[in-house]
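Final report, Chapter 2: Outcomes

The project's central promise was a pipeline that accepts a single protein chain and returns its three-dimensional structure in a standardized token representation, suitable for archiving and comparison. That pipeline is now operational. To close this chapter, we reproduce one record exactly as it appears in the project archive, with the input sequence first and the structure output second.
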Amino acid sequence: MLRNFILTKGIPAASYFGYPLGKAFSLLRTSERWTREEIQKHQARALRNLVEHCYHHVPYYRKLMKSKNLHPDDIKTVHDLAKFPYLTRDNIRKEGEGLRADNYPDKVCQFRRSGGTTGEPIKIALDIRARAFEVAAYLRGYQWMNCRLGNPQVRLFGGSLGLSSNTGLRVKLKEWLYNSHLLPAFEMRQENVEDYIDVVRRAKEGILVGYASAVLNLAEHMSGRHIQGSPLRSVILTSEHIPEEWRIFVSQVFGAPVFCYYGCGEVNSLGYECKGEEGYIVPQEHVILEVGGEDSTVLREEGRGEACITTLFNYAMPLIRYLNSDVLALKYPQKGRKHLRILRLEGRIMDQLTATDGHSIGSVLPTYMVQKSGVPVWKYQVVQTSAREIVFHYLLRDNAHLSTEDKDMLKGMIRRYLGSDMAVKFVIGEFETTRSGKHRFAINRVTSSG
């Protein structure tokens, strides 16, 4: 088939013509056989080039390096990253344009607004090479997770939320190339779930990929109808913490192995599971992942702590030692591929929400809602206090105002998916956290003790 040829032969061949995706894809195919030392040499070269670029073109880093008498020549190995302080969400919001490279104008960038696990949206600019490495790592990761490129992909994500959807030529071509069929996760109901199941039944030798809670909901609908088994090669979950009992149940219902992958809105393609391998394999070709701690002058490659990310090829808006608020455990493997592993993810604590008619809605709804609506909140939390009441807690960006129109838009979105008779209240601040202090952006007091 044409799409199989493009994905398996065409993209790698594009490297000979200088296309970023082709070059990234070819490098990632070669690097699967690298030793740990070869991986680190590649990272060191890429890091030195990145720091040189930052020194000359990124105001925030130029000022930072001069204040520390730090020169690009001082960066020789990955461990020299410890000469840089951590970069936080507050830094990104405060510095704003200072983190943007002066030789990468908006017209050559793609922009991504992240809700993240803490509910504090930030705007990230990406250049074409950064995006190419993310996509190449994504394609390779999907192959690790039992996906044959070109076979059907059923995607259980998002929903219209009453906003116009992007159905342009570029999107249609992408859907054709990946043989992708999108099912809106937040619109799944008892009355239409048979249509969702039929799409899965037709995806012969394909995959189902989606929000973990949405896939769980679909599996529960199937189990309730005594439907078991599917023609899928694998089920792939993402975006939420996945208890082992979810994984087992989903695997039993669909009759297929379950894999997970990890990324965040700011940096995609951070870890992919692979059959026969321990943990999530980190695509170190495009990121340096370390364990954040109290002492930023020490670089920890292994151990437990906050995810600390350095993007090696995003020259438009470099993120050096960025703390993304997720907690993880890192370790190098004893056997198999030599890439670093995420052994455990501890972020993304959230509840599913309950509609007034009793059905569950995937717990990623609040983040998706804020991202798509564009309301000027920088931190938020949705708390379901009863079967018919939602409280939207929020903080605004500097000089921002949550207008009556903004509130009406949010109310309309919430009521569309949780019921037209759902009461919605707005509260400034007063966020709830776990005992360990972690922010949660979806809490359901009706079904959980929090």
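Archive annotation: The longest helix spans residues 36-57.
This record, like all others produced under the grant, will remain available to the consortium after the project formally closes.
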